[in-house]
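Readers of this paper often ask what the protein records in our data store actually look like. Such a record has a labelled line for the sequence and another for the backbone structure tokens. The tokens are whole numbers drawn from a learned vocabulary of local backbone shapes. We quote a single record here, exactly as it is kept in our systems:
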Amino acid sequence: MNNTALVLEGGGFRGMFTAGILEVFLENELSFGSVYGVSAGASYGASYISKQRERNIAVNDFIGHKRYCSINNLLRDGSLFSWEFIYETIPQKIIPFDYTALKESASMFYVGTSNCLTGEAEFFLLNDVDKKDFKTILAASGSLPLIAPIVSYNGKRLLDGGLTDSIPFEYALNNGSKRAVVILTQPKGYEKEPLKYAPVFKWFYRKYPKVYEMLYNRAERYNASIRQLEQLENEGVAYVIRPAGKLEVSRLENKPHKTAKVYETAMLLARAEFDTLQKWLIQ
């Protein structure tokens, strides 16, 4: 398994599909030498790396809480999501996250972000960071344009990792892995549409022209990435797990019962095809 990477797409609360798949991986004690997560994929992937069964579904109960995600947060702090609540209060006081297990994990966990000055993807190894940097890196990876501020980290200005590399299988393969298991949050045939309200984004990020470029080119880059992934899937280099159809939740869903249903559906799918995945892994 050291030569096979696990790659986790983002997608906001559609990521509960990823969380359900990962829960079945934990049930079966399936691990990978390296894991690459972007945005929500990184958030849900953290509990997989720390091997904390049912932690993601426990945290899901809080997504409707105004401290988790609300207009009040946006007006008060400039971010729809309270990163302090999500990546500090919850993991340190409410539903403990096992930072030691993350640090000692045999799986290297890389989190993707987007550099606002260069327009390039930036990946950080989460295993070795302290609690403060844990929060900052995951916040940066999930900071969506307009609804979250740019995050400063180690002299870099960062936003959501999906702007530059939504599905970092190519990065994983260039980083030493020979094959990849990829979990997507969109069904087969999905294509991202071109940027809407482009003038608004161009004005809002007028001091960061690379951010506008990332946003403007995102759909084309994403769709090309999907085509490349399907080719690798046909060649046996990638094993792709995706929803059977469109998930009935939005990126910013705040109803826990709806995201829990997505989680349960994903678990059923993962259990149904786990034997097939195992056969692919030992080829």
About this structure: The longest helix spans residues 209-234.
